[in-house]
Amino acid sequence: MTGFTGTELIAAFSALGAGLAMIAMTGVGIGIGYNAGKTVESTARQPEAQGTLLKLMLIGVALTETAGIFALIIAIMLLFANPLI
Amino acid sequence: MELGPRVIFSIGNVYITETVCFTFILSILMLIFAFVATRNMQKIPHGAQNVAELIVGFIYNMVKDVMGDVSERFTPYMGTLISFLAIGSMLGLLDLRPVTADLNCTAPLALVTFIMIHYNAVRAQTAVGYIKELSSPYAFMLPLNLISDCMFPVTLACRIFGNILAGVIIMTLVYGGLKTLSLHLIPVPFLQIAFPLPLNFWFDMFEPVLQAYIFTMLTMVFIDNGRHPVESD
User: Fold this and answer.
1) What is the distance between the alpha carbons of residues B163 and B139, in angstroms, rounded to a whole number?
2) So where are chain B's domains?
3) Rounded Cα–Cα distance for residues B88 and B22 (Å)
């Protein structure tokens, strides 16, 4: 086996870290699923409130998504703008 | 793969990137549209005036729904935000780099929103009431409230930036993949013609409108919250 240089090692583990960071999306998926499910439930109960509910759901989805977006930004940073290399 | 916006030219240490150029071009085009649409207005609108009235009416209704009686004061800012962010993110349709796929474009907008929220909060409930609101429900919550207030513009800027940048990356990968695939068959990238259309629709049309709407909606909701704090019981 040939030896690795430090930069190669950092690059390899950065790629691994980018993949691991995206695990955060699991929670985001669960959260958005709950959100959408509850909205469908409320719409079935009170169909005339659909417009308001849709608006509230979109805001809720955006707020939930933020955690996932942070993970995505970290992953992108590790791959393309790595501060360690 | 080069991810950041390309530098077009630089004056000393000041780099003029694609983002800056497209922002200026977009602003000038929007100004020209506003100017042309509102010259020589008719009682019965047609043509460009119709479109302008539709947009302005939609924005006024949207702001009025959320902010109520004081909405007229804030409507111009909200209208600027939603139209600039929506059109700026849709530049991918013209095979240009969307201006909001750059943190340098979204962060200042979020900063303006942040200043606006706190300026209006102090103005509506005086400095004492503002500090009291920050240290509710208990005094030791003050640092936590401060941190959560300061994180708001960061999340606001990162949300639209992350979404649009993810769209740019995925579209680049899809177009590159289709090109490689079609070059195996004949030396013309014919697979790029209609196959990426659903993705284009999602990332270049639906997502920008949704993100611009959410940016504006959160700005409105937080300004409204700052002006009328929620009564704690």
Assistant:
1) 37
2) 7-227
3) 8
Q: Whole-angstrom Cα distance, residue A81 to residue B164?
A: 17
Grouping H, G, I as helix, E, B as strand and the rest as coil, residue B138 is coil
B67 confidence band (pLDDT: 50, 70, 90): confident
Interface test with A, best of B82, B148, B161, B163 (most A CBs within 10 A): B163
> ipTM of this complex > 0.90?
no
And the tokens for B154?
A: 């960061």
Residue B227 sits at the chain A interface (C-beta within 8 Å): no
Residues of B in contact with A52 (CB under 8 A): none
Tell me if chain A has a CB within 8 Å of the CB of B66: no
Burial group, residue B153, by CB count within 10 angstroms (0-12, 13-18, 19+): buried
Residue B198 sits at the vertex; the CA angle it makes with A80 and B56, to the nearest 5 degrees, is: 90
Q: What is the identity of the amino acid at A52?
A: T
* Terminal C-alpha separation, chain B: 55
Strand stretches in A1-85, DSSP E: none
Q: Where are the alpha helices (DSSP H) in chain B?
A: 18-38, 48-67, 71-89, 103-134, 142-183, 197-200, 207-227
Under-70 pLDDT residues of chain A: 1
Q: What is the rounded distance in angstroms from the CA atom of residue B97 to the CA atom of residue B3?
A: 10
Query: Using the beta-carbon criterion (under 8 Å), do B214 and A72 form an inter-chain contact?
Result: no
Q: What are the chain A neighbours of B213 within 8 Å (beta carbons)?
A: 58
Tokens representing residue A41 in the block: 């439930």
Report the alpha-carbon distance of residue B62 to residue A41 in Å, rounded: 25
Among B2, B63, B155, B207, pick the best mutation site for testing chain A contact (most A Cβ within 10 A): B155
pTM: 0.87
Distance in Å, alpha carbon of B166 to nearest chain A alpha carbon = 8
Distance CA A58, CA A56 (A): 5
